[in-house]
Every structure is written in C-alpha cells, then in structure tokens.
Specification:
The protein is built from 13 helices and 17 strands. With 437 residues, the chain is an alpha/beta fold. The protein has 4 domains: 73 residues, OB fold (Dihydrolipoamide Acetyltransferase, E2P) (Beta Barrel), CATH 2.40.50.100; 158 residues, Rossmann fold (3-Layer(aba) Sandwich); 70 residues, Ubiquitin-like (UB roll); 69 residues, no CATH class.
C-alpha cells in the first residue's frame, strides 16, 4: 500500500567497509536510544578503556553506554548531538587503544551459543545493543515477549530502502555468516523456529550471498522484495513478507512478529559470541558530489567532520549535510556532532539538491493520500496540526504517521506537509502523556 520510488543513488554500494582510526576526542551522548537516558557511572578525570561501561540504562526502556575508546574523561556535560539538541554526554580524550579484558576481537566465527533465552536477553542488555536501522529501540526489550503474546516469526530487515544508504548492503556482503549466527541467537531467545530476511531486488549480490548462506541455517529463509520506499518500515515489511497487518497503535508482536535490522543481528552476534559492547557501527558517507563515497566502520562518538574528511572532504558545492537518509534524515547545523548508535548515514546534498520549491496552493490532486503507506490523509493532518486542532489530529491517526516523507516528496505544490505533521505529532504525543498522567 502506498510508497514512492525516489532515485536510488547507491553510490557506495561497491565500496567495501573501511575501518576509521579513533579520533583525538569522542563525545558519547547518554541518550542514543529510545527511552530514558542512561545514568553516568564515571566521573571527570577517570581513565577508561574501550568497551568499559560508562553509563547504565536503569529504566526498563533504556540502554547501557560503553566507552568506544580508551583515554581520560575530560568532562560530562550538555553537548549538541545529531538531533540538534544539547544532551548530557561523556567526553573522552583518546589515549592509545586499550580494550577491556574478555572482549574477543578475533574475527574467527563462533557458531554455537550455549546461553538460554533469558541469558541471551541479559547479555544483549549488558552490551548496550539497540536497533541499528535508525529507531534505536533497546534490543533486549524486544526479546522479552509480553505475557499473553507469542512470537511465531523473526523478521530481519535487509531492505535498506532509503536512497544513498549502503551500510546494511555491505554488512550483508562482508559479514553475512555472522549475521546468520546472530539471527539464530535471536530465534533461540524468542523461541521461534522461523526467520525471514527481506531484501529488495536492487541488491542482487546480497540476495544471492544470503540465500546461499541460509541453506546451512534451518528455519532461516531469504525473500526478494520489489523495490519501493518505505518498505523497510516494520509494518510494511511484515505486510510484504507475511501479508499480516499490524493494528493501529499496536506493535508487531500483535501479529506474532519481532522485527530486527541486519545491523542489529550483527551487533547481537558480537555481543553474545564475542562479549563485545556496541561501540562502533558502519556508516555510509555519500552524495552526488562527494569525492569518495564510502562505508566506514566508525567508533561511536567520532565527529561527523572526520567521516566527511575521510570521504574526500566537504565539496565546494555542498548545500546541506544530512544525518540519515534523504527521506527521513535531518539536516545538521554543526559537523562536529558525534556519530551515535543510530547513525546509518551522513549525506552531503549539493546546493541545487538542497533547494526547496516555493510553496503553492494545494491543487487537490490527492497524491499524498494515495502514496501514504499508513493510509492517512497527510494534507488534512498538516492543516489540523497547523491550526493546533490536536484532538482532531489524534482522531485522524496522526500518531500512526511514521514520518517517512513520502507525502512531502510527492507533493507538486511543494507544501511542507511532513514539517507540520511532525510538530502536530509531538503536540499530540504530549497531550496523550498528560492525559494518561
């Protein structure tokens, strides 16, 4: 249902993952996940090693934070992150590259997992693993199926439908076996015997590779999907693979599914089999005028400027730098902000690509209705949100909006539909929280 077909522009799809050296200083925000920020357990002046716990996720929906480098904690303070807001962060001056004892950095594959379901969930929590597709929901929470619910399928998202982004693509090519083991570990934790990896047809090499690997892993299948944005969203992926529809306001477990990204599966493998916390991730750096579009393995807390420099520097015609993909990503106003667990891509738009058309009157074409993957009425929601008619916004399903940007992309009148809906969604969310106490 719905969706659009923006130009793919996968400039870095053939570029192997390249490891970047740690920078001289890292800024590690204590809120890199959905839920409550982690609480620091280190102080200014402390010496830390890579992989050491520096902040605890004490709430149910929260995640632990670990040092991504070794060195000295120079301050714990409010620092601007990729969201544009100032958040409490641990700033570490890098001194060498010493790792915590017990972390296996050898690349030898370990297939067998002796932990039981509860131990797997606790290990994932201990290692600070969150959703790597951008949502950053604490992964251990998804392993805990609510009482009265039952998981039948584990869905693995290898779609990567956002234009320009290729990090998941390269991860499947280069770390496919580890991803498979990570999937079997998640299957064990959930008590399911079926897992489906969904990959769009525009990644034939990844499809072929993962299908070949899946033959050796019982219960895991790989499905080729038609190319359409935003098919990588949880509800759309479940619909495409199993023809099950998640009810409004509900989670995938309502239809027996748990959805994880391929990057999350790899992080689970490293956490459980290698005792390695989530301290680095693959980030795509790309753009039509970027000198060297790349996929970098980067330490959490590395400044965005370091990634751009490694990809050939900021082009002369740069008009905007985006954190994430071009459809759902947000513009950065500071290139010194840090890479976080949810940073999947850094994109450089040219001045021409950054241009927004002048807003005109709505021509009542209804395109935004036909392409909305959630079956909403974006124009109506934008008008209601602009007029602060919040109860009507709620009644019209504004909280179901996934902010995919399809309506903004397709509108011939250049109306900033998503901008209005985002503001309205935030206001409605606040209203609901106040109503529920």
């Amino acid at each position: 249902m719905g969706g659009v077909h923006p130009p793919e522009k996968k400039f870095a799809e053939k570029q192997s993952i390249e490891r970047l050296d740690p920078p001289k200083m890292v800024v590690i925000p204590l809120s890199q996940h959905l839920g409550v920020p982690a609480v620091p357990v280190v102080e200014k002046g402390d010496q830390v090693r890579c992989g050491q716990l520096i902040a605890k996720g004490e709430a149910f929906i929260s995640a632990h934070i670990h040092a991504s480098v070794s060195g000295k904690v120079v301050k714990i303070d409010q620092v601007t992150d990729t969201s544009g807001y100032r958040k409490m962060s641990v700033v570490i001056q890098v001194e060498g590259d010493e790792w915590e004892d017990g972390i296996d950095r050898d690349e030898t594959l370990i297939k067998e997992c002796s932990l039981d379901a509860g131990e797997i969930a606790r290990k994932i929590q201990e290692m600070g693993v969150v959703g790597m597709g951008g949502a950053t929901f604490p992964s251990h929470v998804k392993m805990m199926v609510p009482k009265g619910k039952k998981a039948t399928h584990l869905i693995i998202n290898g779609v990567e439908c956002e234009p320009c982004l290729t990090a998941d693509h390269r991860l499947m090519i280069e770390k496919g076996e580890e991803i498979m083991v990570g999937i079997t570990i998640q299957m064990k934790a959930l008590g399911v015997d079926k897992a489906i990896i969904g990959i769009e047809n525009n990644k034939p090499d990844a499809l072929a590779h993962m299908k070949k690997l899946a033959k050796n892993y019982p219960g895991i299948s790989v499905e080729a999907l038609k190319v359409k944005y935003p098919q990588g969203a949880e509800k759309q992926l479940i619909k495409a693979l199993l023809n099950r529809e998640v009810p409004s306001g509900k989670l995938p477990i309502e239809v027996g599914c748990v959805v994880h990204n391929v990057g999350t599966a790899f992080a689970v493998y490293e956490a459980v089999q290698k005792n390695k916390p989530l301290v680095e991730r693959v980030v795509t750096v790309s753009g039509s005028s970027v000198g060297k579009p790349s996929n970098f393995l980067v330490r959490i807390g590395t400044p965005v400027s370091a990634l751009i420099d490694a990809a050939g520097g900021l082009p002369d015609d740069a008009g905007k730098v985006i954190n994430g993909g071009p459809m759902m990503g947000k513009a950065l106003n500071d290139l010194e902000v840090p890479v976080t667990k949810g940073t999947s891509g850094i994109l450089v738009f040219t001045k021409k690509e950054s241009f927004r058309p002048q807003e005109q009157l709505c021509i009542r074409c209804a395109r935004c209705l036909t392409i909305c993957p959630m079956g909403l009425e974006p124009y109506l929601l934008a008008v209601l949100a602009d007029k602060k008619r919040l109860e009507e916004c709620e009644d019209e399903g504004i909280m179901d909006c996934m902010e995919c940007g399809s309506c903004l992309y397709i509108c011939p009148s250049g109306k900033p539909l998503l901008d209005h809906i985002r503001v309205g969604k935030n206001r409605v969310g606040k209203m609901i929280r106040e109503r529920n106490g």
